[in-house]
Amino acid sequence: MRLVVLQVLVLSLLVTLTGRLWYLQVLAADNYRAAAAENGTREIITPAARGMILDSRGRPLARNRTALVVSISRTVMMRQPDAGRALVAKVARVIGKPVETVWEKTRLCGSAGAPPAPRCFNGSPYQPIPLTDEASTQMALQIMERREDFPGVSAELTAVREYPRPLGAVAAHELGYLGPVTDEELEARTTAATAPTAGDPQSPRSETVLQRTDLIGRSGLERQYDADLRGRPGVKSLSVDHRGGVSGVLSETEPIPGNYLVTTIDADVQAEAEKQLEAAIMRARGLGDINKGYATKLKADSGAVVVLDVRTGGIVAMASWPTYDPNVWVGGISSADYKAITSKKNAYPNQSRAFQGEFAPASTFKAVSLPAAVRAGYSVRGSYNCPSAYSVGGALKRNYESQAYGVISMRRAIEVSCDTIFYKFAYETWVRMGGLKVKKNAKDPFTEMAKSFGLGQRTGLDLPSESDGRIADRSWKRAYWKATKNFYCAKAKTGYPEVARKDPRRAAYLLQLSKENCVDGYAYRGGDAANFAIGQGDTTTTPLQMARVYAAVANGGKLVTPHIGRAVMTPSGQLVRRIEPEPAGRVPVSPATLTWLQAALRGVTEVGTGYGPFFRAGFPLGKVPVASKTGTGEVYGKQTTSWFASYAPADEPQYAIVMMVSQGGTGSGVSGPSVAELYKLLFGIDGSQVDLDRASPPGGHPTSDLPAVRPDGTVVQPARLARGSN
Amino acid sequence: MGTAYGPVAYSVPPRRRASVLLGRGSAVRRLDWTLLLAVLALSALGGALVWSATRPEALNSGTDPQAFLKRHALNVVIGLVLGVVASAFDYRMLRAYAPFVYVLSLAGLLAVLSPLGTTINGSHSWIVLPAGFSVQPSELAKVALVVGLAMVLAETRDGEVEPRNVDVVVALALAALPLALVMLQPDLGTALVLCALVLGVIAVSGAPLRWILGLVGGAALLAVVAVQTGMLKDYQLDRFRAFYDPSADPKGVGYNVRQAQIAVGSGGLDGQGLFQGQQTQGQFVPAQQTDFIFTVAGEELGFLGAALVVALVGLVLWRAGRIATQAEDLFGRLVATGILCWFGFQSFENIGMTLGIMPVTGVPLPFVSYGGSSMFANMLAIGLLQNVHMRRDHLSPRAGRLEPARLSLGNPRRK
Fold first, then answer.
1. Same domain, residue pair A205 and A279
2. Which of A276, A709, B46, B240 has the fewest CB atoms inside 10 Å of its own CB, making it the most exposed?
């Protein structure tokens, strides 16, 4: 009887086991299958070759150089009886490096006994570990011819980024650079990439997932178009055992190389722009400061130049000084180099003054305040008095860039850059609007016009970290006062004793300023309005924004969106997409006023402040008329900012060029000559001869055809545009 | 028919040796073929699974990938020889050797605790012999205890009277010695198997019900006390904790449990195929050719293969139960019962732990797991079962019931 009970008991145990088996293997099998797959597979990533960045005519601005990389498989190392020590020593002898250094390179970062990064290996344990990327062919042959002596060691050609600087065109700020991926990005992209495909074991999980060894665009075009340039890495799925030993290949996909980015930049023009910008800086440094009786030399600490296609907004060239060689970033920047390009002492070479630098635009801003004055009711056909100073609410404001001209026409006011006439327009308008007790919702035509020309906001340029610039209008003044009044009110009480010791006059000025700012710093005064009209005061713009303003004047009022990317192409030559950003709209200026302004700006070059540089350069203005406006910005405590804004040909505009040199003296003296030289290149001018076929780019207009890419990835310059072919 | 009860070798004239094996009433005909075939099937399956479990490591290190398969086969052959020996002599004569076997196993267990013993997988249960051999005396202790218990509990009355209290006490004392030595190793798994075995044999012996209830209650109490007073090693407690919550620490304690379940679960209905299991070939489950051999069946042969293993074990247990039921005497019945409890509990514990319904304790799956000592002990037990089976009066219409009058004939202690 008890035996029967025992047997029933045993039977029930067996039934329990079978039931549990059924649950695990049939009902819950999918979960466990997924877990097993995760357990037993590892992926090896073959990085895709990054796409080239080409200039407008197909010359590479960024490309890949091949390097011979000797790497070792960790899996094979682990199988050696001595964990690969002897093997590593043998390889170290061949590649001529100390054994210990090479051994350290094979240690996984973070594992026991591993040296700190970057001496350790920062990749996946299943990835071959690169030991050197500067192996010679001789070394590679030594290894590959005796494979049995070097198990798991390979020598392969691998792509390394290179910025070849065609014709000397660096474009460091535009190209940007690559940097290693960070833990946060790794985490973020991994979650983003796995989330939507979680339930689908078939989907290749690593397609968009970043790898620890990846480089990604950190700045400039490399960052902006990272997704296009990156390509898709090849994924090799391996089955592995519990210690990571590889037991087989489950699947393999080839890497898809990144696409090419064709830009609007023309390497010839870019090289010349960089050269001319540097020339302007050096010219300024050779000149004395006009305000200090030429005794002090100009500092000319930095500068920028922008060459814009007035019709499309394509940037033909853009340069900033000081600059640096983008190749310093390749393979990881050294701390000395990094310090050099980010230090104040070197004036921050890593920052682009062209689209990140903010400067008071000075008289170049008159291209904006003239239409504003027209809108405020001042006729372009009227005559106005141009005194040497104008009384704004009792304070005399002087004519910065010119002298007293008496009663002159509006056109002459532009040509000679008379400030006092614009003081009058702005101040009278300010008074009409109610002065300090401004009527609600009253639109200031001057600040409104500045906004309409796209100032005070990003242009939409396809580069990261563009600056907004600033329109110092009523609301800005109020917000600024709120943010700073505590500081000024405290200073109004304490004064500036530390400044007073060195410079009592400056201390008194600062104290007066603090007192005013504390009490009613929010007020938009008549002086503010007057300053605004001549591009002075707290209003700032980037050189790129001003180039866009002059492009709008040139093209009949279309506010283009500046851009560098022109098209994305596959390495085999197929067009992926064109990059043609829509214009931001039209400026609210009547055609009559625009036509008048165009003529006035042309007059500036022919008989006004812009004449000097073109005359000295022997520029054939009769054949290629140029419209321009000079600017000399007053900056408190600094030397003046030199501006030269222009477009040409004035009768059929193609290019707008704006050059700016900080602490560079006058617009016509420093920037103007360089701009004239640039136009010579753009229109093929030699002496008084104009040969558009010899122009760069050819034809005297921006390149519109895309360079052809052969199926093998080599680039053909557009045939009929290639220089010297016709 | 009296001659049939003597040792086979003595009961048959030499000139008719062929018929000894094949003739009517011969040993071969009287064998429980179902039991034998089930055991052989399990051993063969075990060989395939051991092969699959050990192949990747061997391939990795460049040694013979069939080494473990060959050793397993050798163990089976040696085991079969031992089984033939165990079945050849009338089991009733075995009573004479029982004390010797018992003392021998105690000596083995003591030797393990001496400097001769070696620790493998946290258990100090091995004696390493020259030439790469090692024995696990606790496996042989199972056989010894089965025979010893049966001897004590069946001796005095041969079923006429139920065991007296004193008999039960003697039986418990007999069990306590090896149990204590096994616990000292410590080998919790074997200790639990011994407990199940003792409980089953005492229950079937006809001992008073209060003993059975008392023992079950006592065991429960002991378990509580053991945990409370720290009699169990930390790693043993960890195994229990992992049993309650395998996800607590998937890289540490719960690792075995988790990996084992992944392996079994990923097998699905029909398995991934021999040598194809990702978990198995990747050696993610520790002790895969021994204690966790069932995961290989689960992953590579799927539910169908795993259920086949369970069914074959069930077949063995059914035959053991049948042999116990049909045994001629109480001694034979108790021997068969002890083996039934041993195999039954050990198989349930082993498979249950890979399926996550029993805590992890290191016991092998009979006939399937790789391991010499275990295989030898198992085959000896099968030999004993065959012995009991062959020597019952299979022609008696009352087969299955005890025949006290006959039993005295073969009792060597009563001659």
1. no
2. B240
d(CA A105, CA A99): 10
Which member of B303, B340, B357 has the closest CB to residue A6? B340
| Within a domain: A199 | yes
ipTM confidence = 0.86
The pLDDT of B201-213, averaged and rounded, is 88
Q: Do B278 and A37 touch (CB under 8 A)?
A: yes
40-99 in B: which are within 8 Å (CB) of A? 56, 60
Name the residue among A2, A25, A31 with its Cβ closest to that of B303. A25
Distance, in angstroms, between A241 CA and closest chain B CA?
Answer: 3
| pLDDT on residue A249 | 78
Contacts of B203 in chain A (CB under 8 A): 2, 6
Chain B partners of A16 at a C-beta cutoff of 8 Å?
A: 348, 352, 357
Nearest CA in chain B to A40: B278
Provide mean pLDDT across the span A551-556: 95
Are A231 and A310 contained in the same domain?
A: no
Closest by Cα among B297, B310, B325 to B389: B325
Which chain A residue is nearest to residue B207, measuring alpha carbons? A2
Q: How many domains does chain B have?
A: 1
> What was the pLDDT predicted at B399?
40
Residue range(s) defining the domain that contains residue A140: 42-263
Q: Answer whether B337 sits within 8 Å of A24, measured CB to CB.
A: no
Residue in A with minimal Cα distance to B56: A247
**More confident site: A329 or B365:** B365
The answer to whether the CB atoms of A17 and B281 lie below 8 A apart is no
**Same-domain pairing of A196 and A305:** no
